[in-house]
């Protein structure tokens, strides 16, 4: 792993060219881009927009970005257009997630961020400071299911918060009873996912909301994947359990526009039930020689072009467009789920609510299956506890799902006939890492790998 990263580094430019390349740099960019893998239709998640990147919706959001690529919402007095677009993106997202319901309280507010991780970081930081102000908690703890996104561990490390991680129940959902047992005087928040990244399952948000209300603590709902699918899936008649601000006890929500919202990468929204909570997200500095300073998000300067791209995406697609895209991806997701269930030796994990289908095997090494799939050009996500894979279905898959199922069947058959790792495959690494009892060593491996590759 390290040698691969080092060899890549050795080919990187380390100094500025003596004479600038001017427009010739575009040729270099084209050559660099040509080295990327053929991602169209072959990746789990990753690219959520259908079609070619040089036409249609891709072309539209790229044009919107280029029109505002020089703008920065930090300077609201100058770029009033961007500030207005951000406010509208937030309001439109909030409307999808319960702000129009009487039970929401009518004060839903929020901001745009650089992605789901920043939205989560801000929600955790805000909950910490809000609960410190409200209850005087100085040794904060938060409760998450083991299926919750790793961004919560990052937030805990950044903001000095203790994590209480609760195993999922037999349905692979957040265990409400387990959460209740972890609540104490230092608890600031709980986290529910709708759906969780690993298995595409919606945690019991309504039950968690009741628990949060009873103990007067915050509840964040991770809708990074589901925010632009679940509202429309519900309208289409799919049995979607409660998940948004209509649920009493939900204090914050994160929802990515750059996933199923079909916006440019780097666009997400963090929402709060009211302004009293959101005020704890902001950082205000009064004693700086540079003047008075206040910032809503982790970044100071932010790319206005991304805000314009998100606004253009939402406005161009519209309610009917999102209903149509949701109908298509939900239908294909169910076909993939049924197709996997029909492959002898594979099983689907839980009962997927949305567009993520996770699957494992008691017959073959699922990571060896993944290596064979990788050799066929597919890029799936490898999971652990249990060892499994998942595919996050996007519009890119609506025309190739039959190819996916055929290649998966062939890969399973290949591993059955020839068990054992293939040369250059990742199965031994995943398998060894999953079995190592010393998780500190696994952590060191990950850190060394990252240090050698960036």
UniProtKB/TrEMBL annotation:
Its cofactor is pyridoxal 5'-phosphate. GO terms for molecular function: sphinganine-1-phosphate aldolase activity. Pathway: Lipid metabolism; sphingolipid metabolism; Sphingolipid metabolism. The modification N6-(pyridoxal phosphate)lysine is found at residue 259. Keywords: Endoplasmic reticulum, Lipid metabolism, Lyase, Membrane, Pyridoxal phosphate, Signal-anchor, Sphingolipid metabolism, Transmembrane, Transmembrane helix. Pfam families: Pyridoxal_deC. Its EC number is 4.1.2.27. It is an enzyme of class 4 (lyase). One of its GO terms (biological process) is sphingolipid metabolic process. Its main location: endoplasmic reticulum. InterPro entries: GrpII_AminoAcid_Decarb, PyrdxlP-dep_de-COase, PyrdxlP-dep_Trfase, PyrdxlP-dep_Trfase_major, PyrdxlP-dep_Trfase_small. It is found in: Endoplasmic reticulum membrane. SUPFAM superfamilies: PLP-dependent transferases (SSF53383). Belongs to the group II decarboxylase family. Sphingosine-1-phosphate lyase subfamily. PANTHER family: PTHR42735, SPHINGOSINE-1-PHOSPHATE LYASE 1. This is Sphingosine-1-phosphate lyase.
């Amino acid at each position: 792993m390290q040698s691969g990263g080092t060899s890549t580094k050795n080919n990187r430019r380390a100094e500025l060219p003596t004479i600038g390349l001017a427009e010739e740099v575009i040729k270099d960019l084209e050559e660099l881009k040509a080295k990327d893998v053929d991602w169209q239709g072959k990746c789990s998640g990753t690219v959520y927009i259908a079609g070619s990147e040089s036409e249609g919706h891709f072309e539209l959001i790229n044009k919107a970005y280029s029109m505002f690529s020089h703008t920065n919402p930090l300077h609201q007095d100058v770029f009033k257009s961007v500030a207005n677009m951000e406010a509208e993106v937030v309001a439109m997202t909030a409307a999808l997630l319960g702000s129009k319901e009487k039970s929401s309280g009518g004060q839903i507010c929020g901001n745009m961020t650089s992605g789901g991780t920043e939205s989560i970081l801000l929600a955790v930081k805000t909950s910490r400071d809000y609960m410190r102000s409200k209850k005087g908690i100085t040794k904060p703890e938060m409760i998450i299911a083991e299926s919750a996104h790793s961004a919560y561990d990052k937030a805990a490390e950044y903001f000095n918060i203790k994590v209480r991680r609760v195993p999922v129940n037999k349905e692979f959902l957040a265990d409400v009873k387990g959460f209740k047992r972890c609540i104490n005087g230092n608890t600031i928040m709980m986290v529910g996912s709708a759906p969780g990244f690993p298995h595409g399952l919606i945690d019991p948000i309504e039950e968690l909301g009741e628990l949060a209300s009873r103990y007067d603590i915050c509840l964040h709902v991770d809708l990074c994947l589901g925010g632009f699918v679940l509202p429309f899936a519900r309208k289409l008649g799919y049995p979607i359990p409660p998940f948004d601000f209509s649920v009493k006890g939900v204090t914050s929500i994160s929802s990515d526009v750059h996933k199923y919202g079909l916006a440019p990468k780097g666009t997400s929204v963090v929402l709060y039930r009211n302004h009293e909570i959101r005020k704890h997200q902001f950082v205000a500095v009064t004693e700086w020689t540079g003047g008075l300073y206040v910032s809503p998000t982790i970044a100071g300067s932010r790319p206005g072009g991304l805000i314009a791209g998100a606004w253009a995406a939402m406005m161009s697609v519209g309610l009917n467009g999102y209903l149509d895209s949701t109908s298509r991806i939900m239908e294909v997701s169910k076909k993939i789920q049924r197709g996997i269930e029909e492959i002898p030796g594979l099983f689907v994990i839980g009962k997927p609510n949305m567009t993520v289908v996770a699957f494992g095997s008691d017959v073959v090494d699922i990571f060896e299956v993944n290596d064979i799939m990788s050799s066929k050009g597919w890029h799936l996500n490898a999971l652990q506890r249990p060892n499994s894979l998942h595919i996050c279905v996007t519009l890119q898959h609506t025309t190739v799902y039959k190819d996916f199922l055929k290649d998966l069947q062939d890969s399973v058959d290949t591993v059955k006939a020839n068990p054992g790792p293939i040369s250059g495959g990742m199965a031994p690494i995943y398998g060894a890492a999953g079995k190592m009892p010393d998780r500190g060593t696994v952590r060191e491996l990950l850190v060394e790998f990252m240090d050698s590759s960036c």
